[in-house]
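job 3f2a | input accepted
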Amino acid sequence: MKNILYLALFIAFVACSKQISPKKVNKRLTEGSWAITEFIDNDISILKKYQKVSLGFSNAGNISVISESGASGSWSVGNDKNPTILYLNFPEETDSLHVLTDDWVVYKFSKDFCVLKRNNKPGFNYETSIDQLTLTKK
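job 3f2a | predicted structure (138 res):
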């Protein structure tokens, strides 16, 4: 009886600790536009600068920005899923958006929101990272 209980707990643990697949991120990001609803950089909330910014992710790897005329960038997702990495790139001259340029760990992801943690360096513990970007589907 104990073995059955342990097996059931193990299966429940594995089911709950599902990893975020790059394929799912690629598919869902391109479905509609995303608002920046939280942005913490170096332990400081800088959301006020980005409250009116919406991002549209194309299948071709382009990011269109709604609110900054002519602004655009690029994106891609790494192949690994432990963790899945979202690469964002905006040119330096793209007003204040270049601060988004980085490798971001896809920390939490659903069809309605995406929580990203800055991937500072190899071996970095993103679980405790303070730098966070949250996108919410519009």
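job 3f2a | Confidence is low (pLDDT under 50) at residues 2-17.
job 3f2a | closed
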